[in-house]
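F.,

This is the one I mentioned.
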């Protein structure tokens, strides 16, 4: 199978490198990934400057743009193949609940699906070592054909793994949880009068609603969350065309 790997952690991320080593024996694997960490860039795309690309080996490229830029390159023939599957990850850190809005990992998979490529986003539920990647890599390697076969143009798949050395409890089909954060903006005034701001936030908690991605991972299970490719009309929004003034 022709597989393209990307991420938002950067090309040297252990999650991406471990996945590459596991898949390249049985598949034609290419990497087109950012040259450094792009976490939190969401679906941004570079429009007002050129994107520089460095080639480190025959099938490995790093660019100074965003994860979405990487998929734009892939789609516009920067590499000489059409992917049969795009995998974004394995991301260090979970992508659960409202994280899905900010994640560059999710954005790369979303953009790949918009171009018509079967795609998955994959994340590990930890920010700190040790990174227990063996189970995640094994699960992906065993199921690449299933991911490609099950894909439809209406969605991409968001997968989250617990960070645990022992076997997973199982696989759950989930929906995004509701997360709450404690955030702040710190300000510093430079000698020249410029104001520098730093945004910081920690997650306070998540809903343990049955069927949510957070609940599944918290139980030691793999979360499979099919994500609608396009923003769709909210079913609980109460609007009437007759109430607006012309």
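My design for it:
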């Amino acid at each position: 199978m022709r597989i393209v790997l990307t991420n938002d952690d950067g090309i040297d991320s252990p999650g991406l490198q471990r996945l590459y080593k596991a898949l390249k024996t049985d598949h034609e694997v290419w990497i087109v990934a950012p040259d450094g960490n792009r976490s939190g860039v969401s679906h941004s795309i570079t429009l007002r400057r050129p994107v520089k690309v460095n080639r480190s080996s025959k099938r490995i490229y790093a660019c100074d743009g965003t994860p979405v830029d990487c998929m734009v390159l892939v789609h516009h023939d920067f590499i000489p193949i059409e992917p049969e599957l795009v995998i974004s990850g394995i991301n260090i850190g979970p992508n659960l609940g409202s994280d899905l809005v900010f994640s560059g990992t999710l954005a790369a998979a979303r953009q790949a699906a918009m171009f018509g490529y079967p795609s998955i986003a994959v994340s590990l539920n930890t920010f700190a070592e040790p990174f227990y990647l063996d189970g995640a890599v094994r699960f992906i390697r065993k199921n690449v054909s299933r991911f490609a076969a099950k894909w439809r143009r209406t969605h991409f798949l968001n997968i989250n793994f617990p960070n645990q050395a022992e076997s997973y409890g199982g696989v759950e089909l989930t929906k995004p949880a509701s997360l709450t954060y404690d955030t702040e903006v710190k300000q510093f005034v430079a000698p020249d009068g410029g104001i520098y701001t730093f945004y910081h936030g920690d997650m306070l908690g998540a809903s343990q609603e049955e069927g949510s991605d957070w609940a599944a991972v918290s139980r030691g299970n793999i979360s499979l969350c099919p994500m609608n490719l396009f923003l769709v009309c909210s079913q609980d929004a109460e609007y009437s065309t007759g109430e607006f003034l012309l």
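The CA atoms of residues 100 and 106 lie 6 Å apart.

Talk soon.
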